[in-house]
Write a sequence for this structure.
């Protein structure tokens, strides 16, 4: 049974989302206002906002994500100030600008592959900027390609143990390895990627256009030595992000150190430009969103979902796995997948004990739902928020109705294919 406090947290969360959807330009103010409200009434205790240790863990706020996001945003601002996004856009446009489908496929597949090994937030910060730069120069509609990249980032992160935080949480909880994820999650995720690639390709303008870059060579406007140092430092940052657990350094620290390095490289010529380009609003929006989700977790609203699933009591593995996949997919479209994964671990263990079902298929059904389902709404994952924020700064606004109309049906199609392939593997 859902307690009154849980209903209150759900109401505040729903009102904040409605306000964000209605007046998106004030989204940070709305979620921060909701966050203040849930803290004021005690649904999120103040101690839960403070990291409990060096690892950056806290009850309500994912400080690892916020630290990483801050650092990568600073690095992205540096690369943009140096003109490297524009240089990359010209290079890609020279090769594929007159073949829209080739351009679309190359960027979407690159997003998925990188997201399987590097934090998807970092991937989307860079590729969204490059994508918008290319599409604007080619005079095409950027929305289909940008939404396809968002979906590819979330699907790619589902493929491997290090692809996203929920995978690491569930993998560590049950002791599953990198090979286990490749064996049980990669194939359904690839199926979801294939259907996503096809569906969005139907929205791409296929009219060949000569890429402006082929006629006007790109001229660098930045010192080559500084640019080489920036690219090399960012490459090192990506390497560290691909193996944070193996080196024992928390993700927030990698992000913060990366941001400091970016500021150091920018000094003194580009520092002001980097700071002005830094998107602080997105960090504040995510901070408020984490606190709102923390209220849902702390008041028992999320646990009520788990209890409802456990009460079903079915002993059919395929039915229970499918229920888990779709329930967690819908939940992760609105609630951060990290707390959902934290709840899913004990839930799966409980279901396995009560019903005698094997835990492994249930774990990977959950992984698929948590990863792919995040593409369902504009706030389903940090990757979505980052990409849409980059689009808005470039003058491209994707409203909630537009996003839901175009992305939600394709998300359901990707989930259906992943569910079907999971059935064959289980």
């Amino acid at each position: 049974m859902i307690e009154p406090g849980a209903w209150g947290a759900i109401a505040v969360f729903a009102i904040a989302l409605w306000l964000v959807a209605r007046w998106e330009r004030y989204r940070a103010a709305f979620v921060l206002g909701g966050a203040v409200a849930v803290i004021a009434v005690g649904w999120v205790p103040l101690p839960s906002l403070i990291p409990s240790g060096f690892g950056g863990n806290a009850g309500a706020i994912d400080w690892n994500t916020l630290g990483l996001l801050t650092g990568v945003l600073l690095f992205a601002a540096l690369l943009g100030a140096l003109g490297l996004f524009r240089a990359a856009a010209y290079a890609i446009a020279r090769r594929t600008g007159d073949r829209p489908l080739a351009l679309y496929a190359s960027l979407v597949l690159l997003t998925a592959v990188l997201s399987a090994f590097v934090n998807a937030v970092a991937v989307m910060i860079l590729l969204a900027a490059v994508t918008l730069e290319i599409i604007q120069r080619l005079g095409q509609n950027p929305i289909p390609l940008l939404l396809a990249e968002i979906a590819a980032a979330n699907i790619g992160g589902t493929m491997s143990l290090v692809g996203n935080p929920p995978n690491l949480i569930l993998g560590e909880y049950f002791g599953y390895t990198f090979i286990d994820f490749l064996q049980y999650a990669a194939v359904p995720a690839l199926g979801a990627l294939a259907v996503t690639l096809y569906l969005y390709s139907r929205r791409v303008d296929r009219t060949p256009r000569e890429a402006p870059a082929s006629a006007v060579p790109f001229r660098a406007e930045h010192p080559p030595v500084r640019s080489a140092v920036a690219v090399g430092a960012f490459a090192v940052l990506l390497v560290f992000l691909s193996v944070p657990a193996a080196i024992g350094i928390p993700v927030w620290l990698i992000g913060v150190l990366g941001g400091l390095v970016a500021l150091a490289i920018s000094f003194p010529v580009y520092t002001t430009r980097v700071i002005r380009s830094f998107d602080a609003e997105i960090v504040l929006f995510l901070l408020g969103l984490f606190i709102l989700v923390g209220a849902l977790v702390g008041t028992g609203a999320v646990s009520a979902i788990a209890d409802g699933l456990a009460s079903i009591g079915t002993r059919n593995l395929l039915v229970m796995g499918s229920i888990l996949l779709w329930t967690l997919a819908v939940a992760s479209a609105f609630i951060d997948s990290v707390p959902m994964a934290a709840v899913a671990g004990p839930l799966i263990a409980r279901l396995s004990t009560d019903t005698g079902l094997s835990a492994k298929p249930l774990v990977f059904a959950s992984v698929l739902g948590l990863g792919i389902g995040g593409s369902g709404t504009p706030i389903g994952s940090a990757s979505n928020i980052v990409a849409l924020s980059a689009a808005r700064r470039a003058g491209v606004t994707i409203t909630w109705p537009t996003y839901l109309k175009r992305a939600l049906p394709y998300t359901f199609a990707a989930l259906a294919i992943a569910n079907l392939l999971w059935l064959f593997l289980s």
